[in-house]
Amino acid sequence: MIYDELKQAVMDGDQEEVEVLCNRVLEEKINPVDAVQKGLIKGIEELGRLWTEGEMFLPDVMMGADALKVALDVLGPELAKAEAEGMKRETKGKVVIGTVKGDIHDIGKNIVSAMLTAAGYDVYDLGINQDVEDFVGKAEEVDADVIGLSALLTTTMPEQKKLVEYLQEKGLRDKYKVIIGGGPTTSDWTHEIGADGWAETAAGAIALCEDLIA
Ligand code: B12
Question: Which domains, from first to last, does the chain contain?
Answer without folding.
Answer: 2-84 (1.10.1240.10), 94-213 (3.40.50.280)
